[in-house]
Amino acid sequence: MVVGPAVRAGSVPSMALEASSLKPLPDDWSRALAVVAHPDDMEYGAASAVARWTRSGKEVAYVMVTRGEAGISDMPPSEVGPIRAAEQRASCDRVGVSRLEFLDHPDGLVVCDLALRRDLAEVIRRHRPEIVLSINFRESFGGPSWNHADHRAVGVALLDAVRDAANPWVFGDAGAPWDGVRFVAFGGSPMATHFVALDEDDLRAGIESLAEHRIYLEHLGGDMADPGSFLPRFAEQAGTAAGVPLATTFEVIG
Fold first, then answer.
1. CA 195, CA 74: separation in Å to the nearest integer?
2. Rounded to the nearest 10 degrees, how much is the dihedral formed by the CA atoms of 39, 151, 105, 227?
3. Cβ–Cβ contacts within 10 Å for residue 1, how many?
4. C-alpha triplet 5, 135, 221: angle, nearest 5°
5. Is the pLDDT of residue 8 over 70?
6. CA proximity to 134, closest of 145, 148, 114
7. Any residues with CB less than 8 A from the CB of 227 and at least 6 apart, and which?
8. CB within 8 A of 118, min separation 6: which ones?
9. pLDDT band at 5, cuts 50/70/90?
10. How many beta carbons lie within 10 A of that of residue 83, not counting itself?
11. Domains of the chain and any CATH numbers
């Protein structure tokens, strides 16, 4: 079995939003860096936006803080880690992402500490993104749910690391400062502020990207094993909130 998707990986758009409350996510940028805790975290909605962006010529790189090795409780981490890393590589290929890195922090035990902040500041300085992407770091995805500790730790550390990366006096051994990050956008947040409108091709690429996590999804079971059954519903619900046919939502900070 795996930890349930509502707290482990799910990125369900908030349904309590009025269309007028969401703004289009700015697209006047060329280079983005996505930083998430686990393989599959980007694939519950945000990957469809990534597919749209890469198809238009934007560059998006992915950094996984862990390899997701503790995500399947009836398989040993030594087996799960390589499987999930390979699935993430195939997933990236579906949405035009060529650069994928793993920081190898321990899955399920990620701590928002100086070590994580330094690692994240270093990758921000090295990739020099204009925007940074991640997934919901709030306590809940909405309703009676409790977000995974790794998601919460990575989100807070990431916001601090963006500031750290710009400061030449912080983590001076982690590369040259980079102050070019305009904002951080968190997919699937219950406090969404912005949206990206999707077309059918974007949505299809997002579904195919999540479907590459085949072994992980098989262990989830039920509806969650079939991305084609729920990602369209998520996109339609987000689109209703945004006033467009299909969308994915983000909470923008910065």
1. 37
2. -10
3. 10
4. 15
5. no
6. 148
7. 43, 206, 207, 210, 211, 217
8. 161, 164, 171, 174
9. very low
10. 20
11. 5-253 (3.40.50.10320)
Span 142-170, pLDDT tens digits: 888 899 999 999 999 999 999 999 999 99
DSSP string, 63-85: EESS--TTSBTTS-HHHHHHHHH
Contact status, residue 22 vs residue 248, Cβ threshold 8 Å: no
Which pLDDT score, from 0 to 100, does residue 220 have?
Answer: 86
Rg (C-alpha) for the chain, rounded Å, is 17
The model's pTM: 0.92
CA-to-CA distance for 135 and 9, rounded, in angstroms? 9
Which helix (H) or strand (E) element contains residue 214?
A: helix 214-220
Is pLDDT of 115 > 70?
A: yes
Strand residues in the chain grouped as ranges (E):
23-24, 31-36, 59-64, 100-102, 131-135, 183-187, 194-197, 247-253
Look at strands 23-24 and 194-197 and give their pairing: parallel
* pLDDT for the residue numbered 143: 85
